[in-house]
Design goal:
By secondary structure, the chain is of the alpha+beta class. It contains 3 helices and 10 strands; from the N terminus they run H-H-E-E-E-E-E-E-E-E-E-E-H. The protein has helices spanning 16-47, 63-93, 208-221; strands at 100-107, 110-115, 128-131, 133-137, 141-148, 153-157, 162-166, 172-177, 182-187, 200-206. The strands form 3 sheets. Strands 3-2-1-5-8 form a 5-stranded mixed β-sheet, with no helix packed on it. A 3-stranded mixed β-sheet has the order 4-10-9. Helix 1 packs antiparallel against helix 2 (63-93). The longest helix is centred in the first third of the chain and has 32 residues, at 16-47.
């Protein structure tokens, strides 16, 4: 999308454009409102500045104008809420069935990534856990069971437009589908202690063939 060339990181997520659209829409509504307010304020400073021989007058206000801008603001907020509700419901509450599954446990100051073993199930004896490296196949729906071992962390993948808090005592399900092969950062986006700035993982989006080979080599090295 054109707005990626402004300041947003490159999007490789299937739902990223929906998130970007809401962000850009809210951004421009805010910018336009700010410009109008600033222009009006400067204009009033000149139009109603103190003049020699002119007495100050008391203004009671304009109820019609107040009702107008209050109603307009309410309509905009309700419209944004309804638009956001459908987007976040699709991303946070629903989503497609997973094709590959992982467990991610946050701790000070690393991401513990757990891959299911050859049985394809998490929580069994053949699981493999590594720190900070998340390898996924491209164009596959990834499902992650996100937890925290100690304090609140935040699993953040900017290129996926994915950000979810990891909360101690809770398992939160997140998903994404990467559309481009590459290597990307997974920083923690919640201040979690003195080592917070160094808490970074790496997302490796791989072709199916490269992913299968990596899994085979990883399982062989952990036997």
């Amino acid at each position: 999308m054109w707005w990626e060339h402004l300041w947003l990181p490159h999007n490789i997520s299937t739902f990223g454009n929906q998130v970007d659209f809401l962000f850009i829409l809210i951004f421009w509504i805010t910018v336009i409102t700010w410009i109008l307010v600033m222009v009006a304020m400067v204009a009033f400073m000149f139009l109603y500045r103190a003049k020699p021989g002119e007495k100050a007058s008391y203004i009671e206000g304009n109820p019609r104008l107040e009702i107008l801008w209050t109603t307009l603001t309410t309509v905009i907020l309700i419209a944004l809420a309804l638009m956001s509700r459908s987007t976040w419901a699709e991303i946070k509450e629903a989503g497609p069935p997973g094709e590959v599954f992982y467990g991610v446990q946050a701790k000070q100051f690393n991401w513990e990534i757990t891959y299911p073993g050859k049985d394809g199930k998490l929580g069994t004896a053949d699981d493999v856990t590594v720190e900070n490296d998340l390898h996924v196949p491209v164009n596959k729906v990834v499902r992650i069971a996100l937890t925290s071992k100690d304090v609140i962390h935040s699993f953040f993948v900017p290129v996926m437009r994915l950000k979810q808090d990891a909360v101690p005592g809770r398992e939160i399900q997140v998903w994404f589908e990467a559309t481009e092969v590459g290597q990307y950062e997974i920083p923690c986006a919640e201040l979690c202690g003195f080592g917070h700035s160094g808490m970074k993982g790496t997302l490796y989006v791989m072709s199916q063939a490269d992913y299968d080979k990596w899994l085979k080599d990883t399982y062989a090295g952990n036997q």
